[in-house]
Amino acid sequence: MGVLIKRDLMLAYRCRAELANPVLFFAVVAVLFPLSASPDAETLKLLGPGVLWVGALLATVLSLGPLFRSDFDDGALEQMLVSPHPLPALIVAKVSAHWLVTGLPLIAVSPVLALLLNLPPQALPILLLSLALGTPVLSFVGAIGMALTVGLRGGGMLLALLVLPLYVPVLIFGASAVHAAVFQLDPAGQLFLLGALLALAATLAPWAIAGALTLISG
């Protein structure tokens, strides 16, 4: 698993433009929102958690394309399927690498964007924690959709239609946790639900992805 993670990280590093696209998209959403809505501090404080979470969600969808597509095109996916290592374990490694190059940078830039949207400092730890729990779920669920559409050319729209409805619970609980922290309420319930979704996704999604890849490749 470690070798596969290292390989995917090296491949991502070689395509630095694609690596930066999700973070740039996330930043553009956060920066342009005050210009399109209202620069009023209280309005930004009210809507900021939702804006940040929608930006992170869409940035993750934007980054899903290369997850299995390059392996499918160069034959590496077939090698994974016939490998003596369990396919779900290899999938966990690939999804982990995807999160490291996508989810982790989104988390890293989120405090700066949160300050631009007038979120108070006490909300920043909850924002970071909610993204740390929620973005891996986005990667696992997105990987299911990518596995189902990997053999389709121009399947980006179908991928979005498949995964966006499944992202809704993560979006609701994540934005709600940050919103509660902004107004000095207890976000523990939402964070526990995000943790439960992460445990469920990490347990079940690799098997669903393995089944989809086996079906597509077969």
Average the pLDDT over all residues and give the rounded result: 86
**Could you list the spans in which at least 5 consecutive residues all have pLDDT below 50?**
none
Number of domains: 1
Helix content: over 70%
End-to-end separation in angstroms reads 24 Å
Q: What shape does the CA trace take?
A: elongated
What can you tell me about this protein's structure?
With 218 residues, the protein is mostly helical. The chain has one domain. The protein is built from 10 helices and no strands. It has helices at 2-14, 16-36, 41-63, 66-74, 76-82, 87-101, 103-116, 124-149, 156-182, 188-217. The longest helix is centred in the last third of the chain and has 30 residues, at 188-217. The chain is elongated. The two termini are 24 Å apart. 40% of the residues are buried. The model has no long low-confidence stretch (mean pLDDT 86).
Brief characterization of the structure:
The chain has 218 residues and is mostly helical.
Helix/strand layout:
Layout: H1 2-14, H2 16-36, H3 41-63, H4 66-74, H5 76-82, H6 87-101, H7 103-116, H8 124-149, H9 156-182, H10 188-217
Helix pairs in contact: 1-6, 2-3, 2-7, 3-7, 3-8, 3-9, 6-8, 6-10, 7-8, 8-9, 8-10, 9-10
Tags for this model:
218 residues; mainly alpha
